[in-house]
Amino acid sequence: EFWRESKISPEDLEKWLEKERAKIASQTWATEMVGNIAAFEITFTMQDAKKHLKRLLVEGHAQEGVSGLLAKFNFSPPPAGAC
Predict the structure, then answer these.
(1) How far apart are CA 33 and CA 53, in angstroms?
(2) How many other C-beta atoms are found inside a 10 Å radius of the C-beta of residue 47?
(3) Parallel/antiparallel/unpaired status of strands 51-59 and 37-46
(4) Taking CA 13 as the corner, what is the angle to CA 3 and CA 21, rounded to the nearest 5 degrees?
(5) Of the candidates 75, 72, 69, 66, which has an alpha carbon nearest to the alpha carbon of residue 44?
(6) How far is 62 from 41, CA to CA, in rounded Å?
(7) DSSP structure class, residue 63
(8) Whether residue 66 has pLDDT greater than 70
C-alpha cells in the first residue's frame, strides 16, 4: 500500500526530468519485487547535494516492466547482485 501511495507515474517522472535534468549530478536506482509488483526507485543527487527519490511501480509482468522502464529512461543496468 505504501508503494502505491508514494509512486509517481512515468509521465510525471518524464516531466520532472525535463525540468530538473540540468541540476542532476548523479543517479542510482534499485528494484524490489514482492509477488507480481516491482518498485523501481531512482535516487537523484542534485548539484546542491540534495537527494530526490522517485518511485515507479510495475504490476503484472514486473520483470518485463522494469526492463521497459530501463529502456524508456535510458538507465544502465546495475552491477550483478545489486538488486
Answers:
(1) 17
(2) 10
(3) antiparallel
(4) 135
(5) 75
(6) 14
(7) H
(8) no
Q: Which residue carries 538507465 as its cell?
A: 75
* Antiparallel, parallel or unpaired: β 51-59 and 24-34: unpaired
Residue count of the chain: 83
pLDDT, one tens digit per residue, over 1-51 is 889 899 999 899 999 999 999 999 999 989 888 888 888 899 999 999 999
pTM to 2 decimal places:
0.73
| Cell numbers for 36 | 507480481
Contacting residues for 42 by C-beta, under 8 A, at least 6 apart: 13, 27, 28, 29, 53, 54, 55, 56, 73, 75
Rounded-to-integer distance, Cα 48 and Cα 14, Å: 21
Which pLDDT belongs to residue 83?
A: 47
For the record, the C-alpha cell of 39 comes out as 518498485
